[in-house]
Amino acid sequence: MKAAPEAQMRLLDLQELDTRLDRLAHRRRTLPELAEITKVEERLGGVGDALVAAQTEISDIDREQKKAEQDVEQVRARADRDQKRLDSGQVSSARDLENLQSEIVSLQKRQADLEDIVLEVMERREEAENRLRTVEADKEAADKELTELTERRDAAYREIDGEAELVRTARAGVAGDIPGDLLKLYEKLREQQRGVAAAPLLRGQCQGCHLQLNTVELNAIRAAAEDDVIRCEECRRILVRTPESGL
């Protein structure tokens, strides 16, 4: 392949711009905020499960408390009815009177037991509420942290994308100075060579693979025409001759 020396030199400018774009893309992919956001989102997932569990626990306790209070009310109402019968003097039979008094005592004991259950349920509800408040506080803190991290990430994205846009504009201008066939080869090699397609020959060394060329290879390059496009025998990248090539 043939290309004017000036066009070949422009390959180095193009490579420098592409390397900057690659670094910007890598920086964008590896922002520290991204890993931190993932951690916070995972934490929020666990907090969300804990929140549902705490809310469900309180809901279950509320049903339990409601039933216990209804049981207390039913026993109290029955004891009140029996006490009114006793106080009214309607029960004249000694045996019936004894049975009624015994039932009132039994109901009072049952009521006391049920009230103890209500108190125990209320205590458990208070503990569950404390757990819920703790989980809600954790969620609020995680939500705030996620918001801050997202804002930092987006700010970094804007900075990187703005710089990348300037580099792409400059790249378009440089690419316009390079012949189509040479540019096509360059783009193909970039895909094959992990982004580095063109490298300068510096003091007899390829700056793409950093291997020193032997005497035979250097003599061949010396003998080549100025517009010959040289390839490194080792890495096959385009070797661009410069005043510092050592030829």
From TrEMBL:
Residues 62-93 are annotated as: Disordered. Transmembrane segments: none annotated. InterPro entries: CT398_CC_hairpin (IPR056003), Oxidative_Scav/Glycosyltrans (IPR052376), Zf-RING_7 (IPR003743). Residues 14-193 form the CT398-like coiled coil hairpin domain. Residues 206-239 form the C4-type zinc ribbon domain. It comes from the Bacteria. Residues 62-87 have a biased composition (Basic and acidic residues). This is C4-type zinc ribbon domain-containing protein. Signal peptide: none annotated.
